Amino acid sequence: MKFQLLADKNLGKKHDCLVLGVCQKTGLLAEDIPLDDKLAALIKSLHKAGDIKGNAGETLLVPVADSSLTDRLLLVGVGESAPAEAKIWRKAVRAAAQALNKTPAKSALVALAQVPVKERDGEWTVTQLTMELGNAQYRYDQTKSKKAPPLSLKSVGIAAPTGSTKKSLDQALQAGQAISAGMSVTRELGNLPGNICTPSYLAQRATEMGLKYKSLKVKALTEKQMERLGMGSLLSVGHGSDQESRLIVIEHKGTTKANSRPYCLVGKGITFDTGGISLKPGLGMDEMKFDMCGAASVIGTMTAVAELNLPINVVAVIAAAENMPSGRATKPGDIVTSMSGKTIEILNTDAEGRLVLCDALTYAERFKPKTVIDVATLTGAAVATFGDVNTAMLSNHDPLADELFKIGQTTLDTVWRLPMSDEYQALLDSNFADIANIGGPKAGTITAACFLSRFTEKFQWAHLDIAGTAWFGGALKGATGRPVPLLVEYLRQQKA
Ligand code: BES
Ligand code: MN
Ligand code: ZN
């Protein structure tokens, strides 16, 4: 889909659909749109009569005859009054996107980015609007014999908010497009089943990205190469599987500045998690195909980073494996040696995410990263704690955690920090190895992060447990694309 910022006389061009915000108190919020008197009166009367009250997310589609501006109006409630709360505004935008996609309109002018939003600027509304409209176009049909019909909407004009330069709004638009493109990559990889999306499939996808984008360099280590590096922990997870494990490394070079240390992303890529010998219960196990959503979000973020050609260096390290039971599988009580040299007693083979991540984190040391953020569907406890609202965050560096928290609040891709104080570390003591891979039934998200913290002492690190936020279950089952918006915004704000 094509997005374009429109201002001044370009707002008077004809579109198939005109999307306008209406608030409860004052009605229409579209001063810059050159409505003729007839249209203005029509909207006023619809509001007065209660056909469109202005409730957040309410929509009304109205056919229009004989207008030089549009063939239909899509009126969208944006809540009580302007400026709107950010989340209310987003609710309105999402409803508008859904309704717009149901119309046959090929072109639309959307006048929602200039609706004032509390504590947000025009760049924010343009990025969010573009991202939400783009994201709403995602359809999954790769494994259906009947393909989704192509959406009619092909071009969207976004009425430019005032008070910002054209250049910065253009950048905001591009960011929104790149984020939604990244999210759809993430969602597609997440939604693909485990028999298609294997570790080698992820490696292949990443390799293709490397060919598409000049700034990217991609390699995928084989099991042999990982053995040579001493990645006994990562490799133990894939022992029971017929699928080879892979360590995928994607490097984005966005600056020629000498020795510019990279920002590093690490993703958990368990392409299916049966639990291994510590087998999971059968009910809902299909959802463990989403156990590579950390990896998928890192790949999606790298897509956006490359699209935007961000002027920094970024390295993604993805630990991909399939966790299966078999005669060769790792057993509870087995002890493995990680790349760091630390030995690990595997008391539960279902705590496999940390086993692949620890070697990926040790591998990341070689890049001398400025910061490292790992993303993982790591614990059921994160789902119990935060549901699908907040991503759990744990960190060894307060400024990094504060920064991610703030960006979460502005992008609405929210994270909430949990403590990682010393008392929890003792839960990982083992009688037979340097460390156990589980910490018992209590504080599951925290002890998982404590395990990772033993492998992140050499850099500033934050861990994002996306077990609750990476996908929806139930009728809307599917990957969400989170936390791509958070990660892209974080990287956009960094300097070489
Ligand atoms: N992939 C799961 C975590 C998970 C479970 C995510 C449910 C989303 C929904 C992870 O590998 C796992 O199995 N974790 C265990 C750890 C436990 C054995 C210490 C868990 O959370 O139960
Ligand atoms: Mn598991
Ligand atoms: Zn898992």
CATH topology of the largest domain: Aminopeptidase
Q: Number of helical runs?
A: 13
- What gap, in angstroms, lies between the N and C termini? 32 Å
Estimate what percentage of residues fall within beta strands.
15-25%
Named at the architecture level, the CATH assignment of the largest domain is 3-Layer(aba) Sandwich
Q: Which structural class do the helices and strands define? A: alpha/beta
Q: Kindly state the number of beta strands.
A: 20
Class of the largest domain, according to the CATH hierarchy?
Alpha Beta
Radius of gyration: 24 Å
* Biggest sheet, spatial arrangement of strands: 8-9-11-10-14-18-15-16
The portion of residues assigned to helices is 25-40%
Low-confidence stretches: none
Give a list of the ligands. Answer: ligand BES, manganese (II) ion, zinc ion
Principal-axes shape call: elongated
Tell me the number of structural domains.
2
CATH superfamily of the largest domain: Zn peptidases
Biggest pleated-sheet summary:
8 strands, mixed
Mean pLDDT: 98
